[in-house]
Q: What sequence folds into this?
C-alpha cells in the first residue's frame, strides 16, 4: 500500500496575508469551497489577527461563517493572542493554530512582544480552550532568522517542549524565510520524532532560496507525513525581510504522487483551481506544474517532413 502524506492548504492565510490587493470575500469563500473538494486533510482558512496588522484578512469572521464545510476536512485558523482566540472560537473552527517565533527578534517584529510574553499569552489561550478545540502551535523561524542568523536546535526543542507540556495536539515547525537546507531538516525531523512521538508534527517550508521541495523530501525520508503548502507557491510573512512564497502545494503534491506516495489530493482538480490564481491575485505566481503540466500530460510530437509535405499537397 502507498504511504500516506497529509497536506494542509494555507493559501488563503499564509498565501494571501502579504498580497497588496484585497481579495474579495466572495472569492476567498469560493476558493476555499473548491479546495475543500480536492482531498486536503486541513485548510487554514484565515487568521484572527488585528485588521491593522494584516488588512488582507480583516474579513475572517465572514469567511469562516460562509464557507461550506466538507466532512473529513479540518478547518483551522491562525490565532496570535487571547483576543484572537475569543474571536476565532465564535466561528467554530476545527483547530486553533497558535503562532510564535523561536527567534526573539522575529517575534518582536511579528507579534510586537518578547517570546516570554507571547508564551504567557498563548499558555492562557491553551489553558482556556484546550477542552473545546484541538490546538496546534506553529513555531516560526525554526531553521534560522533573517535578522539573528542561526536559531539553535535546542531553542526550537525548548519551545516545542513547553507547548507539549501544556497538552497541545500538534506542532508545526516553520522555515518562515526559507533558510533551511535538507541535512539540517533531516536532523531536526529525527530529533523531533524521537522526542515528541505522540504529537502531530507538520513541516512548513518556504521556497525563498529554491530549497523548498528538497526540504520536503528530506523530511519525508525522516518519517514526517504532514506538510503545509500554498496554492501557486504564494505567501510570506510581512514581518520577515526577504520572505517569499511557501512551497507550492500542487508542485509538492505532483512530486510526491510521481514518487508513489498517496497525498489524497486530486491533483487534476487542484490544477484547475491553481490555474485561476493569477486572475485572483492579479499577477503571475511561482508554481511550476500549473504552467508546464504534469509529467503524465504528454504533448503531440512535431510532424515529420513527410507529414508536412503531405499536409501541403
Ligand atoms: N484581533 C483584532 N484586533 C486585535 C487583535 C486581534 N487578535 N489583537 C490586538 N488587536 C487590536 C487591538 O484591539 C488594538 O486596536 P486599537 O489600536 O484599535 O486599540 C490593536 O490591535 C493593537 O493592540 P495591542 O494589544 O497593542 O497589540 P499589538 O499592537 O501588540 O499587536 C498582534 C499584537 C499580535 C495583534 C499584532 O501584532 C498582529 O496581528 N500581528 C500580525 C501577526 C501575523 O499574523 N503575522 C503573520 C503570520 S505569521
Ligand atoms: Zn509561512
A:
Amino acid at each position: 500500500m502507498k504511504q500516506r502524506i497529509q497536506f494542509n492548504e494555507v493559501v488563503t492565510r499564509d498565501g494571501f496575508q502579504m498580497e497588496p490587493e484585497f481579495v474579495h470575500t466572495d472569492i476567498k469563500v469560493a476558493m476555499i469551497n473548491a479546495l475543500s473538494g480536492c482531498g486536503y486533510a486541513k485548510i487554514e482558512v484565515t487568521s484572527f489577527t488585528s485588521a491593522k496588522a494584516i488588512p488582507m484578512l480583516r474579513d475572517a469572521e465572514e469567511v469562516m461563517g460562509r464557507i461550506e464545510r466538507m466532512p473529513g476536512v479540518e478547518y483551522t485558523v491562525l490565532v496570535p493572542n487571547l483576543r484572537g482566540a475569543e474571536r476565532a472560537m465564535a466561528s467554530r473552527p476545527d483547530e486553533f493554530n497558535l503562532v510564535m517565533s523561536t527567534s526573539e527578534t522575529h517575534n518582536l517584529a511579528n507579534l510586537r512582544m518578547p517570546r516570554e510574553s507571547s508564551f504567557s499569552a498563548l499558555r492562557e489561550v491553551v489553558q482556556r480552550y484546550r477542552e473545546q478545540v484541538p490546538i496546534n502551535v506553529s513555531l516560526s523561524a525554526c531553521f534560522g532568522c533573517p535578522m539573528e542568523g542561526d536559531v539553535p536546535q535546542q531553542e526550537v526543542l525548548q519551545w516545542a517542549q513547553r507547548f507539549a507540556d501544556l497538552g497541545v495536539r500538534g506542532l508545526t515547525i516553520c522555515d518562515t524565510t526559507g533558510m533551511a537546507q535538507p541535512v539540517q531538516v533531516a536532523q531536526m525531523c529525527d530529533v523531533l520524532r524521537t522526542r515528541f512521538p505522540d504529537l502531530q508534527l507538520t513541516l512548513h517550508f518556504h521556497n525563498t532560496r529554491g530549497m523548498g521541495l528538497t526540504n520536503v523530501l528530506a523530511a519525508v525520508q525522516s518519517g514526517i507525513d504532514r506538510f503545509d503548502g500554498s496554492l501557486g507557491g504564494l505567501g510570506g510573512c510581512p514581518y520577515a525581510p526577504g520572505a517569499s512564497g511557501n512551497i507550492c502545494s500542487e508542485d509538492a503534491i505532483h512530486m510526491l504522487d510521481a514518487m508513489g506516495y498517496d497525498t489524497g489530493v486530486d491533483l487534476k482538480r487542484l490544477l484547475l483551481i491553481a490555474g485561476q490564481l493569477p486572475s485572483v491575485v492579479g499577477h503571475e505566481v511561482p508554481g511550476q506544474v500549473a504552467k508546464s503540466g504534469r509529467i503524465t500530460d504528454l504533448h503531440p510530437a512535431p510532424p515529420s517532413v513527410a507529414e508536412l509535405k503531405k499536409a501541403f499537397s
About this structure: Residues 6-312 form a domain with the TIM Barrel fold (CATH 3.20.20.70). The chain has one domain: 6-312.
